[in-house]
Structure formats: structure tokens, C-alpha cells
Design a protein that fits this description.
Helices cover about 35% and strands about 20% of the residues. It has about 450 residues and is α/β, with parallel strands linked by helices. Strands 1, 2, 3, 4, 5, 14, 15, 16 and 17 form a nine-stranded mixed beta sheet that branches. It has a four-stranded parallel beta sheet with strand order 6-7-8-9. Strands 10-11-12-13 form a four-stranded parallel beta sheet. The relative contact order is 0.17.
């Protein structure tokens, strides 16, 4: 079922094109030309000199860069709909015993389902933060990497870790935490085996100790040293809830951002998930150091964690992207919904001009690319960049007559996805995933869910 980049140029014409370039250029009836995996022309009207090209008629459509998901937990795709009315800490203590039963086969099924669904929401690049590593679970990290290759998405898996189990004051059960040496060895092995730093890489690895309340300070310090020695990025959860803030004040005598600063966890190679409970000083630290953030508005609302100061982070120049977060705290896992909620929640917090629809779409595209250090490769429709793009159908009943196509996309319901290209390869057409059989995947997900829940008793 796999498709390959076309050998002929592909011309998408007649669409409203939102480039997300530095000047935020848009073309009401524009074109984008793709050769191989690169964009070779972008502009208004009809392109010249492509008589032999494959033509895609974009009339009635909006063409955007592919969406970039900066935070996820794919293994959770098979544990959706559980602990639905819990706080974060209640949710974690309920689900850790279930997650402790995952193995490589289950992770492969979950990742295939989660990533295939992300394609249907316009996502062309996704991270994943995998920190549950059961001792008898097999190669869970390799399992999700294999799934991403099958689905055909650009992938940034984060080799997660936990070394602070319940017996030593952490939240996770002891059998799913690792010791420090095993984590560092496993992290180094993952980077050496999988990480591809090339321009058009489909696979880059980051190191990602889980959170201040499930890892030791020594793990954070040594992971930072290792990541910088290996030349990879660093990721962790931070400032998601007030409970976490209280934990840090009690255990470390400081707030979460101060704690991470003391351990070497700020800089342009670092991004935090959530960053909900920040004060002005914290935002200044992130902005001055170039530390990024993954804004996860839907998950934060689902868990009652709060509303991040996304508009303030954006205004301060903090690298800011969007994330769906794990499927067990965001059952929809829709990247377009994150853009929708980012705009609405910023306005609910600070008024109707706090975040425009174009700023919200920027967070989902070029903003996410910047968070991952790939703003020169993806995130906008520009000559020389990689051909990751989404063509949205806006002439159906749900969107016809909405004056501004960007408002239609961000504020309306999700429109049909006419075409999705990843690295020049067609992976969605007419709202249908081409790379995997989603009906077969859905049955596999349901079976894996039942097995995992039964295993937990």
C-alpha cells in the first residue's frame, strides 16, 4: 500500500496558499510545485514551465504547511477513555499500573493507530515521549520507530526515562523505572542506532527524562551532558500543574523552571511540555535562553491543569509549538483541534485579540518546526524546503461561505483533507490514509486495549 514520491513534478494550483514564511505571504489563488521531496516554486496564479507535471486542482481548498506535533505519548492510544474525571496525579496513579503491562507489540499497535490518526488531522511531523520501559517489555522504542516508518510520518521520538519509583518517593511503580546506568546506556544506544541529523531526515531522536516528580536530579544532569555530547535535543514535562509546583517547592526549595535551570536544562536545544504555571520571570528565562515549549491546550483542559500563558510566551519570543499530548488525556489527538483551542483559550484568558487565527496556525506549523530545531527544513511553504503540506477542502457545507479561509480552518470544524504530502510522498488522499489499512489498525487497537486492561486485572 506504500506510495512513493512522484518522479514528475507535482503542481498544486488554484488553492488559497498560506506559506507561513517570514513575511507570512498568502496567495488567494496560488500554486506550489514539488519535485521529489523539495518545494521548487511557490507563488500567485499559474506556474510557468511545468507542462509535464502532475496537476492537483486546489480550487475551493486551503493549502498550508503540514502540522507539527511537539508532544505526544503514543503508547497511550490503547488506554483511552480511562480515569476521565481525574486530576493529573490521580490519573497517573490510576494508569501507571495499566501502562506497566505494555510490551513492544502493544506499543507498535498503539503507535500505528496514533500516527495514522495524526495524518488524518494534517500532521506531517510528530514527536513522541516514551518513558515507560517495562523490564520484560522488549524493544518498545524500536517498536514505535517501526510504526512511524510504516505510516510514513516524519518522526522525532524522545527516548524517555524514569528512575524515581514509588519506593523512593516517585509516582511510577518500581517495575517500570530503570537505574541510572541503564538509562544512560539505553539513551546513547538509541541515538547511535536511530538518529539521523541530515537535512531531509525522517527520524531524529531526543533524550527525555520524564518529569521532576519521576526522575532524580542526577538523571537530569547526566542526560543533559549526554545529549549535548551526542548533539541531540532534550525534552521533559514541566510546570503542568500546581501540584508539581508544590512538589518542587517542598523537595527542592524552588519552582520548576528554577530547578531545571540549576541542572542545565535551559537553552535552544531544550523544550518543555505544557509550561502552564509560569510567572513573568520564568517566561523571561525561556525567552532569553531560547528554551522552547509545547503548548497542549486540550490535554491541559481535560485534566483541569489550567490554561498556559501562550499569548505571553508567543509575545516574548519563546519558541512555541503545539502538542496533542498522550491519547489517555486527549482522546481526540487532533492537531487542528489544538490550533483551535490555542486561539480560543488564549482569548478566554486575555481577550479576543490575545491570539489571532494566523498566530495559532503559526504555532501548529513554523512554531513547532522552530521548537524542534527544523525551521530551515519544514514548517513553511518556501522554495528549498521539504515538501510537507496539507490541502484542506473548504467548499463543503461546514465551511462554504466563511469569508476568511484561515478562520474557517482554525475556528471551524475539521474540513476534509484532500491531500497530505510528507517528504513529497502522498500519504492521505480524499481523507483516506494510503499507507496503512486503518480498519485493520482499528481492530488491532481494540484488541490491544482489551489485552492490556485484562492484564492489569
Amino acid at each position: 500500500m506504500h506510495t512513493r514520491p512522484t518522479t514528475r513534478p507535482t503542481v498544486i494550483r488554484g488553492a488559497h496558499v498560506v506559506t507561513m514564511d517570514a513575511g507570512r505571504a498568502e496567495y488567494r489563488s496560488g500554486h506550489v510545485v514539488v519535485e521529489g521531496n523539495r518545494i521548487v516554486a511557490v507563488g500567485d496564479g499559474e506556474p510557468v514551465g511545468y507542462d509535464d507535471a502532475r496537476i492537483v486542482d486546489g480550487t475551493g481548498c486551503l493549502l498550508t504547511p503540514g502540522l507539527v506535533n511537539t508532544h505526544h505519548h503514543l503508547y497511550q492510544w490503547i488506554t483511552r477513555g480511562l480515569a476521565v474525571d481525574h486530576t493529573l496525579f490521580e490519573w497517573l496513579t490510576t494508569l501507571y499500573p495499566i501502562w506497566g503491562g505494555i510490551d513492544a507489540d502493544m506499543v507498535h499497535v498503539a503507535a500505528t493507530g496514533g500516527l495514522a490518526h495524526l495524518l488524518k488531522t494534517g500532521c506531517t511531523t510528530s514527536t513522541d515521549h516514551h518513558y515507560v520501559v517495562p523490564r520484560d517489555g522488549g524493544d518498545v522504542f524500536g517498536a514505535e520507530i517501526a510504526a512511524a516508518a510504516e505510516v510514513g510520518i516524519r518522526f522525532h521520538p524522545c527516548r524517555g526515562s524514569m528512575d524515581l519509583g514509588a519506593s523512593t518517593g516517585g509516582l511510577p511503580p518500581d517495575h517500570i523505572v530503570e537505574d541510572l546506568d541503564a538509562i544512560l546506556t539505553g539513551s546513547q544506544d538509541a541515538v547511535r542506532q536511530w538518529h539521523d541529523p541530515s537535512f531531509d531526515s525522517m527520524l531524529r531522536v531526543a533524550l527525555a527524562p520524564c518529569s521532576p516528580f519521576s526522575v532524580t536530579g542526577e538523571l537530569l544532569k547526566q542526560s543533559a551532558v549526554l545529549a549535548r555530547d551526542l548533539g541531540v535535543r532534550m525534552h521533559t514535562h514541566l510546570a503542568e500543574t500546581l501540584d508539581e509546583q508544590d512538589f518542587c517547592l517542598e523537595k527542592f526549595g524552588c519552582k520548576p523552571v528554577e530547578y531545571m535551570e540549576s541542572l542545565g536544562w535551559t537553552g535552544p536545544d531544550v523544550w518543555y511540555a505544557h509550561a502552564v504555571h509560569l510567572d513573568d520571570r520564568d517566561i523571561g528565562v525561556l525567552a532569553a535562553s531560547g528554551t522552547g515549549a509545547a503548548h497542549c491546550p486540550t490535554s491541559n483542559a481535560r485534566l483541569g491543569a489550567g490554561i498556559a500563558r501562550a499569548a505571553d510566551l508567543y509575545a516574548a519570543g519563546v519558541p512555541l509549538g503545539l502538542g496533542v499530548d498522550g491519547a489517555a488525556s486527549n482522546e481526540s489527538c487532533c492537531m487542528l483541534e489544538e490550533a483551535h483551542h490555542a486561539a480560543l483559550f488564549a482569548r478566554a484568558r486575555s481577550g479576543p485579540r490575545a491570539m489571532t487565527v494566523r498566530q495559532s496556525l503559526a504555532l501548529a506549523t513554523i512554531g513547532g518546526a522552530r521548537v524542534l530545531g527544523r525551521e530551515n527544513e519544514i514548517g513553511s511553504l518556501e522554495v528549498g524546503k521539504l515538501a510537507d503540506m496539507a490541502l484542506w477542502r473548504l467548499d463543503t457545507l461546514a465551511h462554504s461561505g466563511i469569508a476568511d479561509p484561515v478562520a474557517a480552518l482554525v475556528l471551524g470544524s475539521q474540513p476534509p483533507l484532500d491531500l497530505l504530502l510528507v517528504n513529497g510522498r502522498e500519504v492521505v488522499r480524499d481523507d483516506r490514509v494510503l499507507t496503512v489499512d486503518t480498519e485493520v489498525v482499528a481492530r488491532g487497537v481494540a484488541g490491544a486495549h482489551d489485552r492490556l486492561v485484562a492484564k492489569a486485572g
